[in-house]
Amino acid sequence: MKKKALCIMSGGMDSTLVAYMMRAQGYEIIALHFNYGQRTVDKELEAFRNITDALGAQERYEIDLDFFKTIGASALTDHTIDVPVDGVEPGVPITYVPFRNGIFLSIATAIAEKEGCEAIAIGVVEEDSSGYPDCRESFIGAFQNAANLGTKESTRIRIEMPLVHLQKSHIVQEAYKLNVPLELTWSCYQSEVNACGVCDSCRLRLRGFELAEITDPIVYDI
User: Fold this and answer.
1) Which of 59, 154, 160, 219 has its CA 20 to 30 A from that of 46?
2) Per-residue pLDDT averaged across 113-131, rounded?
3) How far is residue 124's CA from residue 132's CA, in Å, rounded to a whole number?
4) Domains and CATH numbers, the chain
């Protein structure tokens, strides 16, 4: 039997590259996407479906998590809070969704156990992220230990995070090496038509392409 990897995929550049990296390593890809009430939920879902079609994913899961809107406390899920557009600031930004990756990984663990996956792959980036605490390597490593304690003895899951120490410019370069369809990806926090170009995620993406000396294939309003 071919080895399987469950890839958590937002429709963004980082998680898409991770899925292509896992496929290049010979894994059969099972794709997992979450609709959690984010501002660009429809665009991200469209991107996920287009990317997984191009990737040839063996199976895909789309999970709705409406409770994130009830929890609030994030500009991504609470529309009364403005998305920052003045540049990336130090510290944990208001776009942080409380414990999002912990919840995503919990659900991913259940699916991975059911599907017989030996790996869960996630596109966390520690050095070039927006300061989210649940993107840290130490957190992901601790979660892997907890996941294996809380599953069947025969279940042994590794959580792969191959981008965790990369800069965004290196991610762009690696994506081009693997012919990742970056034109299908979406990173903007607040627009579903053209990317705004001024939210934290757009700024990090554009800066990565600039440093890699490659033109971003998506359209921006700036």
Assistant:
1) 160
2) 89
3) 9
4) 4-212 (3.40.50.620)
